[in-house]
Design goal:
The protein is an alpha/beta fold and 388 residues long. The protein is built from 14 helices and 17 strands.
Length: 388
């Protein structure tokens, strides 16, 4: 089936959600494969807005575990095969697929897409992808294919040149650089979404757009998704008159996602945390702001705290119950780091107690640091990532 393939350090999820909404607005049965999930495994594999049923997951595992063990397949490889099988069984008409890690060697990279797009590049998974932005960009660019349109969604000039060079070297054509084609203006960010003006070759008269996702950077993610649709050509290029209405269908939990006084964001690297910090300041979050933070041990938790510490009134550091045992951080080390810099911080190893303590006297409760942090908190608060 036709596939839109998306890679990147940050912005993948938002771009995928935007593509799903825009493709679905035309009546297509759209499939989406993303990772990780927040609360329920079925969130990873969605067709027509419905997550893969638990019974179907169990049946696939029962049927294919012997073969997976014979092959030595990884969890993500099995999950990717499960997603593709479910898409076929469910009659999906088009799929939007997000890479799990990197791009070049990612299990999803078996597809030959109608268009491949790479969003922003940041320092994450450096132990596997390289410790420079250029090296990481090279791995992400591995999803570009000969003869397939390539979209570069990174706005940093030096990094986007690396992506464009890799795309051309792989024979991708045409190579579309969003920052050089699209002009974004009049960005207006509120907790319930982001408005902006967009002018591009596919919309020379300009479009006044609004996405339900909050954050100035979301304008860039929308521009990337629209450029991917334009590059895919007929029959995927939308009627630009219908785009503003279709954007209202975008839905994505855990990205500056507000529910009452709770604010959820899955930021798990310094770039993501800086976006959260900027939003707290720009949107005037109700004070005091208490942040419940748990980070996986192999992430740059110091960089995350450097972004959040100066803008929150209190840090509550804990361990997410679903965090893999091999990746559990030491919140005591993080508390010592924070307090040495003058940021009020406390450790509460029990996550349920930590969630309660973060809420004690808070005007805003920020929950962040990983998908595990956000998912575990949402589960305890009885919130569904799919809005159901």
């Amino acid at each position: 089936m036709p596939v839109f393939h998306v890679a990147g350090t940050n912005g993948k999820g938002s771009t995928v959600a935007t593509l799903v909404a825009l493709l679905g607005a035309t009546g297509r049965r759209v499939a989406a494969y993303t990772s990780p999930h927040l609360v329920d495994f079925g969130e990873r594999i969605v067709v027509g807005g419905t997550p893969m049923p638990a019974a179907a997951v169990a049946e696939f595992v029962r049927r294919w575990t012997p073969e997976a063990e014979r092959l030595g397949a990884s969890f993500f490889e099995v999950t990717t095969a499960m997603a593709f099988d479910h898409f076929a069984q469910s009659g999906a008409e088009v799929a939007v697929i997000e890479t799990g890690l990197g791009g070049r060697l990612d299990a999803t990279n078996v597809v030959r897409p109608v268009v491949a797009g790479v969003t922003s590049i940041g320092l994450d998974h450096t132990e596997l992808l390289g410790d420079t932005l250029a090296a990481i960009a090279g791995e992400k660019a591995g999803i570009y294919k000969p003869g397939v349109p390539a979209v570069v969604g990174e706005w940093d000039p030096s990094v986007r040149r690396v992506l464009a060079t890799h795309a051309a070297a792989r024979g991708a054509t045409p190579v579309r650089i969003v920052a050089e084609e699209c002009a974004i203006a009049d960005v207006d960010v509120a907790w319930d979404g982001t408005g902006f003006g967009l002018r591009a070759p596919f919309a020379p008269d300009g479009l006044a757009l609004r996405t339900p996702l909050a954050g100035a950077y979301q304008a860039r993610n929308v521009a990337t998704a629209l450029t991917m649709l334009d590059a895919a050509g007929p029959p995927f290029r939308p009627s630009w008159h219908d785009v503003p209405g279709a954007l209202g269908r975008v839905q994505l939990a855990g990205r500056l996602h507000r529910h009452g006084r709770y604010l959820f964001d899955v930021a798990h690297n310094p770039d993501g945390a800086r976006h959260v910090a900027d939003a707290l300041a720009a949107l005037g979050a109700a004070r005091p702001v208490h942040a419940l933070v748990t980070v996986l041990a192999d992430k740059d938790w110091r960089g995350i705290l450097d972004a959040l510490g100066p803008v929150v009134d209190r840090l509550v550091l804990s361990v997410a119950p679903t965090a893999p045992a091999s990746r559990v951080w030491r919140p005591a080390d993080a508390a010592a780091y924070a307090m040495a810099r003058g940021w009020p911080a406390e450790v509460e190893p029990d996550f349920d107690h930590a969630l309660a303590r973060a809420g004690d006297g808070a005007g805003t409760v920020l929950v962040t640091g990983s998908f595990h942090t956000v998912g575990d908190a949402m589960a305890r608060l009885g919130l569904s990532p799919l809005g159901r």
